[in-house]
Amino acid sequence: xxxxxxxxxxxxxxxxxxxxxxxxxxxxxxxxxxxxxxxxxxxxxxxxxxxxxxxxxxxxxxxxxxxxxxxxxxxxxxxxxxxxxxxxxxxxxxxxxxxxxxxxxxxxxxxxxxxxxxxxxxxxxxxxxxxxxxxxxxxxxxxxxxxxxxxxxxxxxxxxxxxxxxxxxxxxxxxxxxxxxxxxxxxxxxxxxxxxxxxxxxxxxxxxxxxxxxxxxxxxxxxxxxxxxxxxxxxxxxxxxxxxxxxxxxxxxxxxxxxxxxxxxxxxxxxxxxxxxxxxxxxxxxxxxxxxxxxxxxxxxxxxxxxxxxxxxxxxxxxxxxxxxxxxxxxxxxxxxxxxxxxxxxxxxxxxxxxxxxxxxxxxxxxxxxxxxxxxxxxxxxxxxxxxxxxxxxxxxxxxxxxxxxxxxxxxxxxxxxxxxxxxxxxxxxxxxxxxxxxxxxxxxxxxxxxxxxxxxxxxxxxxxxxxxxxxxxxxxxxxxxxxxxxxxxxxxxxxxxxxxxxxxxxxxxxxxxxxxxxxxxxxxxxxxxxxxxxxxxxxxxxxxxxxxxxxxxxxxxxxxxxxxxxxxxxxxxxxxxxx
Length: 580
Known about the structure:
Elements: H1 3-12, H2 19-28, H3 39-56, H4 68-71, E1 79-86, E2 90-93, H5 94-101, E3 116-119, H6 126-141, E4 148-154, H7 165-169, E5 185-186, H8 192-204, E6 213-222, E7 234-243, E8 248-259, E9 265-266, E10 276-277, H9 279-307, E11 321-324, H10 329-346, H11 375-384, H12 386-392, H13 398-403, H14 410-420, H15 424-427, E12 431-438, E13 442-450, H16 459-466, H17 470-475, E14 478-480, H18 482-495, E15 515-520, E16 526-530, E17 575-576
Family: Belongs to the thiolase-like superfamily. HMG-CoA synthase family.
Active site: 156, 190, 325
Domain Hydroxymethylglutaryl-coenzyme A synthase N-terminal: 74-247
């Protein structure tokens, strides 16, 4: 049955529609050229769309409650297709930093749960980090730049108050001729990457989608002034390819969000990279946001289950893995314990004689808002949740423990860490809970469902394989002394906004294939070059073309054009951040 027939049947019989008629119309509503192109019909189309919106997409329905006939219109299993992670090539040991800073042994390594901290010299900025991670994802995935229709950057590392980092990245698209790429930058502390990811998913599921992939980049350089907050720094970037039929699919309607005004962490000084931090308030905001987001999420999934005839409450047991934004690893462990506290307090009749709630009866009547800094509650529930932490969350802290807090990419570094340390068979079918938090503050807890297909060559198998060298990459970094680290922080502090400046950091210390800053001219225009991908070749400034590797991630729609394979080689001398 063609579109014309469906349109006619709908036009003449709106009160007695068949499900198949609505489904077919919704499936094809993005291609209205299939309908007659006469003015009187255009008016009817508009009326038809309005009626469909009111009938199937009513704003008064609970999220996730859309009837199956309407869900048929969306691309299936929209989510993350590929992930690339970039961390700087040098780090400092937290144990050595404790001694250097003159604090007690264990303050950073035990109290914060941090082992190493990655950092950037003045050779790297937010644009170079993002250039590196985007090009690596495209090269490793074998994708053409023409297959990307949306690119959005989530970052709080601002080097220009007007020009977005996304526009700098567009230089990677120049040879392909693709300038039809939506999206700019999104900023709210560590939440910007999640906001960009949601925008990408929403775009693919919308009438604006043209069949191409969305690309999301989360990147930051987290640095602090000398003092107690400095060991919670870090740096890095994560790029994620978003499309339909993904191995990591977003569960539709299952997002719990909480947003509130607070000055827990902010950057009011426009000439400094350093934030103003209220440490105690920041922890309270983080934990209160977690409580609220978890409550909203549980209510939504419970409502979905009730519509399906089930009356099962949501708890930690529903998640195969749970990952969190990680300012420092110890806070993540406390956060998982807090989810168990929420489960305990919301359970109508918890078993305190056996099972995970054993011995917790003394805390039955505590008020959740009074427990943010209650050591007795914290200790009891960290002990009670220790097994769950080992099974669901500990693996997610690989990058956080070894590289530190990356701000916007932090939670996605945790997701990558889970993928890197499990087989496709261990991941298949699992629900992964994701809690993202950004100071100021904005937070969401949502879930991802892993595909059931773990066969060799499947999209999940390729995704996991692409991250299997993550530990090796972390181990290949160069360790520097705390004194060298402090000198680099001082150099960044003095030079990060200078004009007519040539960076002093060593290019030879960068990983092969890393983009780096070559100079900032007298008008603050930045120019970048890329280190050779091969160690046995001399350093070269310029963009390398994609290799002859076949594209192993197909386009969402096969009609999208492709760049013919080309021999790898240099492709120009420099790349800049533009002339204005």
